[in-house]
Amino acid sequence: MTQAKPKSIKPDSAKWTLERYHDAIATGVITDWNVELLEGVITPVSPEKPIHWYRGDQAARYIEKLVGEQALVRFNAPITLSATERNPDIAVVKPLGEEYALRHPGPEDILLLVEVAESRPERELKDKMAIYARAGIQDYWVLDLQSSRLVVHRSPEESLYNSVADLTEGMIKPLMLDVDIQVGRLLGR
After folding, report:
1. Which of 52, 76, 147, 162 could disulfide-link 48, Cβ–Cβ 3.0 to 4.6 Å?
2. CA 129 to CA 121: how far, in whole Å?
3. Where does the chain hold its CATH 3.90.1570.10 domain(s)?
4. Pick the CATH number of 48-186 from 3.10.450.350, 3.90.1570.10, 2.170.120.30, 3.20.20.70
């Protein structure tokens, strides 16, 4: 008797929805896993080196002092995009109070996203950038610690940003916040 070959699974059919991902967390299927959902794929999160965590923490505290009551600064806390749920290093979001007890901030709530790139800046500058552009995140910054620069992405369109600027010094104003931020301070100078 001949055994039937198993049906192949198309890559798209194996992707996780946000609902399925949330159910797996709620029912304890995903516990103590250091993962995130990136475009429907459960992906391991790399451990952070001390310099990555320290620079991100310092940048978040600095931004938080500047924005005051204008916004809520979340450090390594979840955001939800269409088929993605991840913890960016810094998410500056609308101050919606108790609303965040019911859901994580979505694209419409995000005023500024900042990622810290310590050892592999290409991940933040390509992979995450494409995800954030598709989600319509208007202001996405990368603190590239290797090159000691701030890469500012604005004007998303499909998987790209039409405006990308490299800054090493000076001041920058986020698009949706009424503050001026010292680039050197973000980079630890």
Report:
1. 52
2. 11
3. 48-186
4. 3.90.1570.10
User: What are 38's strand-pairing partners?
Assistant: 41
Distance from C-alpha of 117 to C-alpha of 38, rounded to nearest angstrom: 18
Whether 6 has a pLDDT exceeding 50, the answer reads no
Residue 37: both structure tokens together: 């959902």
pLDDT value for 47 = 67
Distance from C-alpha of 56 to C-alpha of 123, rounded to nearest angstrom: 16
Indicate if the pLDDT at residue 34 is higher than 90: no
Give dist(CA 70, CA 11) in Å, integer: 42
Q: What is the pTM of this model?
A: 0.79
